[in-house]
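Chain X:
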Amino acid sequence: MQDGLGTTDEADVPAPVPLLAPVDGLPPVVADRDALRATAEAFAAGSGPIAVDAERASGFRYSQRAYLVQLRRAGAGTALVDPIPLGSDLSDLAPALTGPEWVLHAASQDLACLAETGLAPSRLFDTELAGRLAGLPRVGLGPMVENLLGLALEKGHGAADWSRRPLPQDWLVYAALDVEVLVELRDVLTGMLDEQGKLDWAHQEFEAVRTAGPPAPRAEPWRRTSGIHKLRKPRQLAAVRALWEARDRLAAERDIAPGRVLPDAAIVDAAVTAPDSAGALSAMAVFRGRSQRRMTAYWWSALAAAERLDPADLPRPTAPTEGPPPVARWADRDPDAAARLTAARAAVAEVGAERTVPVENLLQPDLLRRLCWTPPEDGDVAGFLRKGGAREWQIALLTPALEQALTVRSA
């Protein structure tokens, strides 16, 4: 029933149909070379796009390797491939998967681990990114499948420890269902984007994701330790750095998620407390457990090394930065730049509202800040954006508004 405003009563919306089992049944896990080659032959003989997904064990393992790869294609069905017994080498599949479009959800999360197995797309469709560009309010796979296809996906295993062997049956069902309807979802989203005049935008975005290189290593990654904002003294920061680096080495060696080796809270607590001996360290709550007591000498060695540092070698209170200073300081350091940024943000927000595209998908915030802090001397805003990695559709949409914003001065 519709009310006087033309909206649909929620009671009239059909309940989503639960997807409880793969339509073709649960396939056996591909775990040897003969099965992998047979899978490659089946997918080479299939037709249309290929739905792809990968499962990692991010909260459990240090590495970001794929512990399961799911594939589905018309004429080939679904394949569940275990990379681990195959030495994480799935290159036998590469010829069959090269050429057809891959359909992934949040592709940037999976492409790196897939590349480690020897698999990379030559064309890409990202359903999450497509949903953002289409202006959908919720772009998780479950909500999109429910709202656009009327189906309810299984929940509950996305954050599981996929390094576990054998993989439980219900996890495998969940994994198979994740690729069950990806191509159908892609078709619906393609129609929506085409109707909105955004399909070319989407193709540009997908290509940017596909061709993006690995992210540059963070400078001083230890500064991301949760709770570090409580610390101001250089010697405390040195303690955090020493424990973080010691933890990172151990986590990489054992392939265990760093937080499971030593919680961030323990690192910060040790830096604040500054124990004066290994015994005092082992008396602290988090370091008192059996597993941590065995590592007391290791952790104490890191803390002691930090304590012996020459003052000139202590970390600075704030992280070194490239480019503009923190925005909070702009008004004092360059009021005109602050005025430009305020105007530019408003302009981008207005374009986003008009086109029903999230602001963060219109332009990278860092690129916008750089533009406003140091506008191009020649006035070539389009060239500045292009050099900074903006796509042509973004440049065409935003350049006129940003050129106007850059003329704003502080009062």
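Chain Y:
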Amino acid sequence: MEEPIGRVLKRTELADGLILEKTSCPLGVLLIVFESRPEALVQIASLAIRSGNGLLLKGGKEAKRSNAILHKVITSAIPDTVGENLIGLVTSREEIPDLLKLDDVIDLVIPRGSNKLVSQIKDLTKIPVLGHADGICHVYVDKSANMDMAKRIVLDAKIDYPAACNAMETLLVHKDLSSNGLNELIVELRREGVTLYGGARVSTLLNIAEAHSFHHEYNSKACTIEIVDDVHAAIHHIHQHGSAHTDCIITEDCEVAEVFLHQVDSAAVFHNASTRFCDGARFGLGAEVGISTSRIHARGPVGVDGLLTTRWILRGSGQVVDGDKGVVFTHKNLPLQL
């Protein structure tokens, strides 16, 4: 990986001898509240170190002792010139409300966990919060879909890791497939032990239990199925009931695919690929500190680049503004490397 900090992103000659550079820099201090997964602390810490950010970590209580050992190993490897205090470990849940008041010290909060956790943290702090509350991911099977491909993708999106935030929760099927194609998908899902719930059209057609809500994240071997009239109806459904995480279309019609890819306003939108690909490691980011459905700053899997912001550096030779009479502006783009 190239050095992420201090990269020149844009270089402009404002006037003769007056050079402006837009450069990358760390956000500052991060507070990350995360779940009890063995690799979570290691991934988060490595990304924070690589991006030059200070870090406060609060892991799930079930991994308290593992996190303490991992924290000790990582901080002992940090050079003395930086100092082990770069990464702090918070061990008590009671400390979190007090930390969330430190908006003059902490620059960003990243909660990883349940909808309830994310909502609570947003309510308790003025610090910017990056993350996602729900992972309600859709797969839309269009009328031109290759059904063998559709079955592979739908099964992978649902059963590869059902508890993941990028697992499929709702399957949308074009109305022209409501006889044969839909039945093929249902047979495959049931064979894998998936519990099926229907929207109004599917539950009536197939006599299965109706889902109590389309905006529901099962996190298990269960999903909702509904029939839609076309790609535009699928897009409308996703915008109305989705969580802007990851949504997929399966189709052999490239024009329909492009409509879906450009009009679905989610952090990640796929064509003929499982939603499970929405992941920092699979995207080549090395790891991820979390997945963001926010529209400001980072979106989708957040790696090193998502933990950076920008600064402006101006190099002159005595220029003054003098009511804009003192400088003749050229605003000329310069090569990044001189």
